[in-house]
Amino acid sequence: MRERKNALVLFSKPPIPGLVKTRLTRLKDGIFEPEVASGLYHCMLFDVVEICCAAMTKMEQDSEAQVMALREDGIPEDEIVRDTFELIISTTPEKNVAVMEKLFSDAGEWPRELVFICDTGKSFDEHYNDSFRQAWERGADCVLSMGADMPALHTKDVINGFEMLHSLDGVDGGGIVLAPDQAMGVSIVGWTRETDFDHTGVFYNPSGLTVLPAYIQKAREAGLPALYLPAVPDVDTMGDLMHNVTLVEALNYCAPFEDNTPPWRTAQALKEMGWDKIVVPPNDLHDPREEIDK
Asked: What is the pTM of this model?
């Protein structure tokens, strides 16, 4: 039986005030103190990890059930694939690996083993490439990557990402999957071991392209198939935060009805901050309705 090893690489930083989510703080154009912004990021990080763990557990259970069903149907062992999953938390510099390990250890037990690595490089492109290199060296056949500042992440987003990667597994030359964020960037991206692809020129594009079109341009030039995942917003700016506040509220309410793992820590932090509700003043910036509303 073939064991297909899947890695989810989560890019993250320790929640240190003044070093994370600074665009939400008075240090830049936000309104929060650095300690508040870092505390909010801390909750997002833990929520995203828990959501990813839940998705991986479900995928492993489904894979095991499929293996048993195929065996019962008499399918030869060499035609059966069992999927295993590894969650890799990538951070930098090297000293932050121990910081992150302690952060998660102090929080108690996690649903699965977490692997911590240090990504290196002189640019974000190089850091991203280095984390993928380490995932391949650990034996991964498929790698999916994302950031830790996405409290609206759904377990289905993770599952769909890997299912799309699996549809590319065995395709000659491989292929990529990607999900956009809300601001011309990419929130989830990954590819198979057979894919000759990297992040070079994406985050520092010489033509000035933003991240999403830069990935598409690279895939087009390489003649690679690319599969599109639904958008998953992250949180960088105050506008991003306001949008995510509404999503976090909805996800927490809907979770019991759809067996999802919700971002409950982020929801609790937003409530404590007094940011659990977003309201806007009325405005007249809409199409004329005189002929409609009578």
From this structure: 0.95
Q: Are strands 142-147 and 186-192 parallel, antiparallel or unpaired?
A: antiparallel
What is the dihedral sign for C-alpha 110, 113, 117, 123? negative
> Is 29 within 8 Å of 23 (Cβ atoms)?
yes
Contact 265, 47 (CB under 8 A): yes
Longest CA–CA separation in the chain, Å = 69
For β-strands 81-91 and 2-11, DSSP reports them as parallel
Which residue in the block uniquely carries the two structure tokens 């520092």? 204
Q: At what angle do helices 34-72 and 155-168 cross, to 10 degrees?
A: 50
Report the distance separating Cα 112 and Cα 51, nearest Å.
12
Helix (H) or strand (E) holding 258: helix 238-258
Tokens 């699965």: give the residue: 112
pLDDT tens digits, one per residue of 180-239 = 999 999 999 999 999 999 999 998 888 889 999 999 999 999 999 999 999 999 999 999
**Strand (E) or helix (H) holding 144:** strand 142-147
Distance separating alpha carbons of residues 51 and 46, to the nearest angstrom:
9
Helix axes 264-273, 34-72, angle to 10 degrees: 160
Dihedral angle computed from the Cα positions of residues 284, 287, 289 and 291, in that order, rounded to the nearest 10 degrees? 150
Q: In the beta sheet, which residues pair with residue 10?
A: 89, 146
